[in-house]
Amino acid sequence: MTPDLVSLVIMLRNTRAASMAPDQGRAVAAEFLRWVRIIQPELSAALHDKTDMPKPYTVSNLNGLSLPVRGTVFLPENSEVWFRITSLTPDLSLFMVDKLLQTLPTEIQVGDAIFKIEEAIWEAKKHPWAGWINYSELIEKELMGEVSRIIRMEFISPTTFHTRGVHMPYVLPSLALRSWLKTWNAFAPIKFSEALLETADSALAVSCYKMRSIAVRYGKATLVGGVGDCTFNIQEKDLYYLHVIRLLSAFAFYSGTGAKTALGFGQTRRVDQSYAYRE
After folding, report:
1. How far is the first Cα of the chain from the last one, in angstroms, to the nearest whole number?
2. Secondary structure in 3-state letters for 83-100
3. Burial category of 115 from C-beta neighbours within 10 Å (exposed 0-12, middle 13-18, buried 19 and up)
């Protein structure tokens, strides 16, 4: 049985030395959508939906790059980097597992660099950012399991929120919760009441904040997002909503957080998230 949620990590190695801009989320996303268009055109049309609904997938930037020097990253020959694609619907997960994995090309070009595709991983035990699970399993483990009021979140790519007409680079707990709930309700078989958001400002509090701001070139614009670790303390007294908040924080591994998660932003995981949540 194909899982509902999949995180596919694709390992790359460059065949010769190269240099590039550090922000390649849009280029990686374009390559993923090109693969979909070639393999299953009707699915490609659905993924290009231009409504305000969340996308049923996320795509990361290239990970493993060195720090940029004057806006440029240098890759020696034989450098290993990776990116990940996550799917949030059974149809897209089926495509990724049954079709994409079987037809991946041997090479991919990102910017001016050409990489060999070394491996595609969707088992959590082989890579910390890979995994899969069904919605029913995630619900059972989070709504019925043990509960802690502490959740530590890791944001490995710039995370920003579009709110009140501007982009907010500060990871406010209420904005993170709103983002997770909106995406969950768009794709999960069980919906949660938006009444949770009425007390979002008081439901979560920041107890530790180790974040920094990073500017990302986005076409002609520059967006600023937060990267790092943030620990939330769940203040919600209602035990049911406490479980829901923890469920949504686990879901963030697949959904990402905030705006433009299909273009490299908002890659997220809960730090205490064990293999049991990602199989």
Report:
1. 13
2. EEEEECCHHHHHHHHHHH
3. buried
Task: Tell me if 10 sits within 8 A of 85, measured CB to CB.
Answer: yes
Q: One-letter amino acid identity for 274? A: S
CA distance linking residue 19 with residue 9, whole number of Å: 22
**In the predicted structure, residue 256 carries a pLDDT above the cut 90:** yes
Is residue 100 within 8 Å of residue 121, measured between CB atoms? no
* pLDDT tens-digit readout, 39-96: 999 998 888 776 778 999 999 999 998 888 888 899 999 999 999 999 999 999 999 9
Angle subtended by helix axes 239-255 and 173-187, to nearest 10: 80
Closest Cα partner for 99 from 43, 56, 58?
Answer: 43
Q: Of 268, 269, 8, nearest to 131 (Cα)?
A: 8
From the list 18, 42, 1, 54, the residue with the least C-alpha distance to 263 is: 54
Which tokens in the block code for residue 18? 């190269």
Angle, vertex CA 111, rays to CA 108 and CA 114, nearest 5 = 35
The tokens of 179 are what? Answer: 């983002």
pLDDT at 96: 96
Separation CA 179–CA 15 (nearest Å): 39
Q: How many CB atoms lie within 10 A of CB 197?
A: 15
| Cα separation values, 271 from 16, 153, 227, 228, Å | 35, 6, 14, 11
CA-to-CA dists, residue 276 to 93, 138, 273, angstroms:
19, 9, 8
